[in-house]
């Protein structure tokens, strides 16, 4: 599924609002060491729902907010917007253009939206689940990730295969349904206790 553009504002080294348009074909990003190339792929993973500060090379999530430099003071929030072309309906939604946004403030407040409509992180994760994209998919291979996959435990490798095979979403829905079933069973027991007390 083609990416259309990435807009970064206040994310890591990107203090100024920066928009990268991905035109058809291959886009290469080149630059000297430490100029922010990896920060761009991290911005993509972050907006798609990455929740591990460590995997974004930080200690805490607020470390992704521009921390200031000799000439500029730190920023109070980071914002990333990623736009996709969904004309081939690879994501399970009728919309042809999808734009997802994530914003994080230093005080920990966070906002997510899909096509400018506020949503939960879960909605973004589910949108990409089984699409072959998503924060941990093979569409983004960071430095060291290949070794990490080779060295992973069988159970972790299995979850990678399940995501690629398109069954991860159903597994998650099964867990949610089982939790609901268990809550309902508890409620039924409670009702039956009340009925026998009243009898
Ligand atoms: P290499 O080619 O060596 O892999 P790169 O081009 O991929 O480098 P990155 O690792 O993306 O570079 O960027 C590292 C830079 O980002 C460092 O200069 C670091 O100081 C800066 N940086 C990281 N987090 C922040 C932050 N929160 N605020 C400001 N700058 C940051």
Task: Please describe what this structure looks like.
The protein is an alpha+beta fold and 199 residues long. Helices cover 34% and strands 19% of the residues. The protein has a domain of 139 residues: 3-Layer(aba) Sandwich (Rossmann fold). The chain is built from five helices and six strands. It has a six-stranded antiparallel beta sheet with strand order 2-1-3-4-5-6. Strand 4 and strand 5 form a beta hairpin. The protein starts with a strand and ends with a helix. The mean pLDDT is 89. The site of adenosine-5'-triphosphate has 14 residues, from helix 1.
> From the 3D coordinates, which CATH architecture of the domain at 3-141 would you assign?
3-Layer(aba) Sandwich
Using the coordinates above, name the CATH class of the domain at 3-141. Answer: Alpha Beta
Which strand-content bin applies to the residues? 15-25%
Major sheet: 6 strands, antiparallel
Bound molecules: adenosine-5'-triphosphate
Return the average pLDDT rounded to an integer. Answer: 89
Taking the alpha carbons of the first and last residues, their distance comes to 62 Å
Task: Report the C-alpha radius of gyration, rounded.
Answer: 21 Å
Name the CATH homologous superfamily of the domain at 3-141. P-loop containing nucleotide triphosphate hydrolases
**Number of E-state strands:** 6
Structural class assignment:
alpha+beta
**Contiguous uncertain segments of 5+ residues:** none
> Strand-and-helix sequence, N→C?
EEHEEEEHHHH
CATH topology of the domain at 3-141: Rossmann fold
Principal-axis shape: globular
Record the strand order, biggest sheet: 2-1-3-4-5-6
Assign a percent range to the helix content.
25-40%
Number of alpha- plus pi-helical segments: 5
């Amino acid at each position: 599924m083609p990416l259309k553009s990435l807009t970064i504002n206040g994310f890591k080294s990107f203090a100024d609002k920066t928009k990268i348009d991905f035109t058809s074909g291959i886009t290469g990003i080149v630059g000297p060491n430490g100029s922010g190339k990896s920060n761009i792929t991290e911005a993509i993973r972050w907006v798609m729902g990455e929740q591990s500060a460590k995997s974004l090379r930080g200690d805490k999530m607020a470390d992704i907010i521009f921390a200031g430099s000799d000439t500029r003071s730190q920023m109070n929030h980071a914002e990333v917007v990623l736009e996709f072309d969904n004309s081939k309906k690879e994501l399970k939604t009728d919309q042809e253009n999808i734009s997802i946004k994530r914003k994080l403030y230093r005080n920990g407040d966070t906002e997510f939206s899909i096509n400018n409509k506020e949503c939960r992180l879960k909605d973004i994760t589910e949108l990409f689940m089984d699409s072959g994209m998503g924060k941990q998919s093979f569409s983004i291979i960071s430095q060291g990730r290949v070794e990490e996959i080779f060295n992973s435990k069988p159970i972790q490798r299995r979850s990678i295969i399940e995501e690629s095979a398109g069954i991860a979403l159903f597994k998650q829905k099964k867990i949610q349904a089982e939790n609901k079933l268990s809550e309902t069973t508890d409620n039924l027991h409670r009702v039956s206790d009340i009925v026998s007390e009243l009898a």
